[in-house]
Amino acid sequence: MMRKYLVTPIVMMLVTMALYAQNTLSYVPDPKIEQRVEKTLSRMTLEEKVGQMTELAIDVLGHMEGDRFVLDEDRMEYVFMRYKVGSILNTPGAVSQSPQWWQSAIRTINDYSLRACGIPCVYGLDQNHGTTYTLGGTLFPQNTNMGASFDADLARQAASITAYETRAANCPWTYSPTVDLSRDARWPRVWENFGEDCLVNAVLGRAMVEGFQGTDPNHIDKYHIGTSVKHYMAYGAARTGKDRTPTYVPEWELREKHFAPFKACVEAGATSVMVNSGSVNGIPMHVNAKYLTQWLKEETGWDGMIITDWADIENLWKREMVAANKKEAIIMAINAGIDMAMEPYNLDFCDLLIEAVNEGRVPMSRIDDAVRRVLRMKYRMGLFDMPNTDIKDYPKYGSPEHFKAAQDAAVQTMVLLKNNGILPLAQGKKILVTGPNANSMRCLNGGWSYTWQGKDADKFASEHNTILEAMQQRFGMANVIYEAGVTYNNDGPYWAENEPQIERAVQAAAGADIIVACVGENSYAETPGNLDDLALSANQRDLVKALASTGKPVVLILNEGRPRLVSDIEPLAAAVVDILLPGNEGGNALARLLAGDDNFSGRMPFTYPRHSASLTTYDYRVSEETGTMQGVYDYNAQVDVQWPFGYGLSYTTFEYSNMHVDKTDFTAGDVLTVTIDVKNTGRMAGKESVLLFSRDIVATIVPESRRLRAFTKVELQPGETRTVTFTLPANDLAFVGNDGLRHLEPGEFLLQIANKSVRLNCR
Ligand code: BGC
User: Fold this and answer.
1) Backbone angles phi, psi at 173, to 5 degrees
2) With bands split at pLDDT 50, 70 and 90, how would you rate the model's confidence at 3?
3) Whose CA is nearest to atom 5 of ligand 1?
4) Which of 151, 243, 303, 309 does the annotation list as catalytic?
5) Distance CA 231, CA 126 (A)
6) In what order do the strands lie in the sheet with 756-762?
7) What's the predicted TM-score (pTM) here?
């Protein structure tokens, strides 16, 4: 009996491993690099190896003199000569620096590192939506906007320009892209990734890896940078909706959804992966050998490097309480598969890890494996052959060409959610521009912009236009009136507002024909961005209500990192646009769209909730919605959202016809070819995201309502028709069961594109 119980899980585990274990990488390691890695490793002492596994924050290396950061010789000696530290991160004083400053600082750091052990240092920056920490560069829309574009080429291009501008500052590595799934509207990091869906995160994440790194993962040239895909995994599904709190997700959902974008990115050759700071199903991700080593490294064959998030080894014993002290925490994390520790301020990591190795508690083979991965990444970045770049090779840094690319990108990411015909705005009308987000670069950019919390964007981005400035330029100074009505208190927490002056805005509306009310959120990042109430602030809703009561049409502009509830003011608006966090060129992009110079083509990258206690995602299980009952058992069990995932309007209309699938019966090995005609039936050229959803009608796990299986974007002139073709491996329709295996069960499936659908049968 005993044996039976033991054997079954073991057999299941072996079957699962065998089924998933295959090298699925899209590249083959370069044997010359592998030889150089081995040669370097063979010469290293244990101290040097452990040093290469350590990353410190730059603050440790110097001190501030006024607002200038200066590297101290004695600290540099200590960190590099004594400890041979392999990596440095972050910006000094938490404020963006000029590329010239970075050029010289990173060159000095490399000089020390090369003198200490002949190995260049790898510097890492959070260039999260463009040049977060390098002044004067290009800030693109945040990733949530990129998700709204449903356009992989756009994401690739933004990453490629960011890579160029990051290397211009002599920095070879970014902690991007973020491919967490935003499964909870309350989470303060919703805007950092491509939305709630795993396919969108996988496709756009992979495109960004290619854009950052270039096409050959073995050889990242001087115009490209290495990536750290983050935060592995299930970070965006915390039960409380708050940052760095525990997630509980069944393993089949982890496998099917949260793992998918990381898999896609490492298969594309991402140089590194950063780990989710929190715990999943009770186990901190940083000590989970199964997910770090087995799933991420062994099953895929991936040879990249895993780095912790900020101080997360420290957090294992100070916050998560799974280790009694730091040494235990280090042993657990390194044995689980961590290759580099982001230990911002402490070098005791090195001393304790050396002790642990000498005591036999971390095998030397694990250390060698970690260091190989670190060295491989440095070789692939070309750092051994060219540790530094020359700023003269980057004439396009912060150029009009790059700013224009950011503006064109922003145009494609704004979502038109409602339009009674008032948009595009007629020329020559008087427009009241109002609301706390109307005249703020901070609001357009969100967090990770010049500083971590994004507070100083108005100081550093003054050459770019706020919404107000862009509206004045596009519609004429004389036609634009400005009265904020509500303002943020920029010295307080992100949600703090000053005493509202709603009456002044109402008075200003008397002189206007149209009201453009810009509301939403001020910038924040991570834990400081936690919230207690998902509704848009009461002041802002009161402002919109007061303005609507004037009888003048209100165009509601939502500028926010996550969906704040607007169900009481949406009915008052003649039009609604969610611009999300469109970056430095967002003001200009919005003015172009409101004027009708360009067409809207963004779609919601997440489900926009209507009610605070009804949070869901588009791929909810069918049993969440059982309909309505009348009479004695009067109830309403319907999913009721403000705007669904994938929703977005345009100034033109599209008609779908002739949906066709080449097989009506299929089996697992088949590839389905799905075609559909899309016609622009309006009067303006426009881009349309074509989304292919599936539904498994009956399944042994309660089926999902819908699941996105493929998407593309087409541009159509008025009257033009295009046939869109999707090639869909039938196996993509499978789900992961409780046994961890993929199942494609016989029975009926529905494929759906817009208002068309086809039923198929799996044999
Ligand atoms: C964040 C990461 C970031 C890291 C380094 C952490 O607090 O969670 O996203 O890459 O800091 O700045």
Assistant:
1) -150, 135
2) very low
3) 310
4) 309
5) 13
6) 665-666, 756-762, 747-753, 686-696, 707-716
7) 0.96
